[in-house]
Amino acid sequence: MKILAISGSLRAGSYSTQLLRTAAGLTDIQLWTGLAGVPPFSEDHEDEPPQAVQAMKAEVSSADALLIATPEYNASIPGQLKNALDWLSRPHRECALTGKPVAVVGVSPSDYGADWSQQDLRKVLGVCGAQVVERRLCVPRADTAFDATGQLRDPAVQVTLTLLLDDLSAMARVPV
Q: Which domain of life is it from (predicted)?
């Protein structure tokens, strides 16, 4: 099974990317790192998208499931992540997200663990036709959530991450 992980953050020291690396230590996950190279969406080019978009669509299409980690920027989804989802959803007849199992996680320095951005991301994914895992994972206080080796400090958060990955894997095994 191929689970493709996408971090909504472009920052080198991203907590979202760290959360995905932690998840990769629990199951076989491939981290996709091409988000920064995806150009702004233009409907003028949706039938002949740029090479970076074609590569992204191929990666997402070949995955059995997606794990998306989002930070929270101004109480919502980072622009570059939303831009990528716009490309993935178009043209509608070729939406790479239709029926795709997707789990959403979030991490933030706030006490809310990117809850609002996760809500927005779940909404966008649902509109695109993805099958969104119900289990939620909000990791608050990102600056203290990980130890020096990059592992989650809170055992309860670690258990929830494991259960979420189990849910995602189970959903990916069920035919649509």
A: Bacteria
The DSSP output letter for 51 is H
Q: What is the pTM of this model?
A: 0.96
| 49 close to 98: Cβ distance less than 8 angstroms | no
Please give the structure tokens belonging to residue 32: 């996709």
- Residue 64 neighbours by CB distance under 10 Å: 15
Measure CA of the first residue to CA of the last residue in the chain; give whole Å: 15
Class of domain 3-173: alpha beta
Q: Could you give the count of Cα atoms lying within 13 Å of 6 in the half-sphere of its Cβ? A: 24
What is the residue-wise DSSP string for 88-108? Answer: HT-SGGG-TTTT-EEEEEEE-
- The helix (H) or strand (E) run that includes residue 162 is helix 155-173
Please write the tens of the pLDDT for every residue from 103-149. Answer: 999 999 999 999 999 999 999 999 999 999 999 999 999 999 999 99
Pairing of strands 65-70, 137-139: unpaired
Query: How far apart are alpha carbons 117 and 16 in whole angstroms?
Result: 12
